[in-house]
Design goal:
Elements (H helix, E strand, L loop, with lengths): L1 H15 L20 H4 L2 H11 L22 E5 L3 E6 L9 E6 L4 E2 L5 E6 L13
Parallel strand pairs: 1-5
Antiparallel strand pairs: 2-3, 4-5
């Protein structure tokens, strides 16, 4: 009788215990490809992806601009789609700091070292109106 009670108790405990299932699936969609990232992108990311697809590898004009002659007649041209931009000038080759200054569109500015900079209208991007509000 005690053995019977033990079997019944063990079955009741097993029935009351939570069942944990291990579910394994084989990659059923192995022949399908991920969706194009442009379809999921929005805002700045989408503008950047569209510009890069069109061949513009610096859509937000963040790459370093090499100084030109830097004279008042031939200043270093800084493209921008905004009305103001901050520009850094490394005045001497072995300088360990950057001289930062604000420049305004169509208003040339001279750095303390004597080099001139001028900001001009930059290239507009497709979908840009989604992220830049002038």
């Amino acid at each position: 009788m005690a053995a019977m009670r033990s079997v019944i108790l063990s079955r009741l405990m097993m029935a009351a215990a939570p069942k944990r299932y291990l579910h394994l699936t084989v990659a059923q969609a192995a022949d399908k490809m991920m969706a194009d990232p442009v379809e999921h992108a929005t805002g700045r990311e989408k503008v950047e992806l569209l510009a890069k697809a069109a061949g513009n590898m610096d859509p937000f004009q963040l790459n370093v601009v090499k100084r030109a002659a830097g004279t008042k007649e031939n200043p270093t041209i800084i493209p921008s789609r905004l009305d103001r931009r901050i520009v850094g000038c490394i005045c001497e080759e072995d300088q360990t700091y950057i001289n930062w200054m604000w420049i305004d569109k169509n208003s040339p500015k001279r750095c303390g070292c004597g080099y001139w900079f001028k900001m001009v209208e930059g290239e507009h991007l497709p979908g840009e109106e989604l992220i830049f509000h002038h």
